[in-house]
Design goal:
Layout: E1 2-4, H1 19-27, H2 30-46, E2 53-57, H3 63-68, E3 73-78, H4 81-94, E4 99-102, H5 105-111, E5 117-123, H6 135-142, E6 143-154, H7 156-166, H8 169-173, H9 191-200, E7 204-211, H10 228-238, E8 250-256
Parallel strand pairs: 1-4, 2-3, 2-5, 3-4, 5-6
Antiparallel strand pairs: 6-8, 7-8
């Protein structure tokens, strides 16, 4: 079932204009494969072994939720109809039938009124919202008691660290905003801020992982760095090890209400 809302929240990023670029740049490379591997590992290790009601907010290409749709009741939403068209094509290939909704998350309050979900996915969304803190009220409304919240978000500390490694000190003194074709967000939310939101709402953090904790920082592909399988193994190995997980380009927090 598709519900279409024609307008979007004015300050939230819509990827309609670069949907193909997004698909190629993120998931056509090892970067996206590492992200999916870490997320799927975290979810498979901690979610209960029973059918779940799942909501994917700002799903984009929806790889994670489409995989979950083989055994769970899944609703997939995004502000971009172009991205969801690609997700729908993948759903046909996988022979799964999730519900698709084209709308900003703010409009879901009306479309999903009264519904509760056992798992809400919100991956690479916070950093593209005009007012990211407000989405916590949305989670309050739609997450079931004892439900799980999966938050994956861009880590601003990684941008600083990469500029230090590359010697781009001028970027630290006078950061240059990314243009509209860039997949680097201009307003990422720090880990400490996200954790404070969860603490305020009395969530229990089940696991924390870093996504791409070293491979994004290695311009010279020496030794094992030339072997994608070895890189994947090391990324998974150190993704939850202190202090390396905190250097991930993205961070994943799985929390329980």
């Amino acid at each position: 079932m598709n519900d279409t809302i024609s307008h979007s929240h004015v300050n939230d990023r819509n990827f309609n204009d670069i949907a193909d670029h997004f698909a190629k740049k993120v998931y056509g490379t090892s970067k996206g494969q590492i992200r999916l591997a870490v997320l799927e590992r975290d979810l498979s290790e901690h979610l209960p072994d029973r059918p779940l009601r799942v909501l994917d907010v700002g799903a984009g290409l929806a790889q994670i939720s489409l995989n979950l749709a083989t055994r769970h009741d899944v609703t997939i939403s995004d502000i971009s109809d172009e991205m969801l068209q690609k997700a729908q094509a993948t759903a046909c290939e996988l022979n799964v039938l999730p519900r698709f909704i084209v709308a900003p998350y703010q409009e879901l309050t009306h479309l999903l009124k009264g519904q509760k979900f056992d798992l809400i996915l919100c991956h690479a969304v916070l950093e593209w919202l005009g007012e990211p803190a407000k989405i916590m009220a949305f989670f309050d409304e739609f997450l079931a008691d004892d439900g799980y919240l999966s938050l994956c978000f861009y880590n601003p500390a990684s941008m600083i660290y990469r500029n230090l490694i590359m010697g781009n000190f001028y970027q630290l003194a006078r950061p240059k905003p990314a243009d509209n074709k860039s997949l680097t967000p201009n307003n990422p939310v720090p880990y400490e801020t996200v954790k404070s939101w969860l603490d305020d709402k009395k969530y229990t953090i089940i696991c924390q992982s870093g996504i791409r904790v070293f491979s994004d920082y290695t311009p010279l592909k020496r030794g094992g760095l030339g072997n994608p399988d070895d890189v994947m193994a090391m990324e998974l190995n150190y993704s939850q090890t202190h202090p390396f997980w905190q250097m991930g380009r993205y961070l994943h927090i799985l929390a329980k209400r």
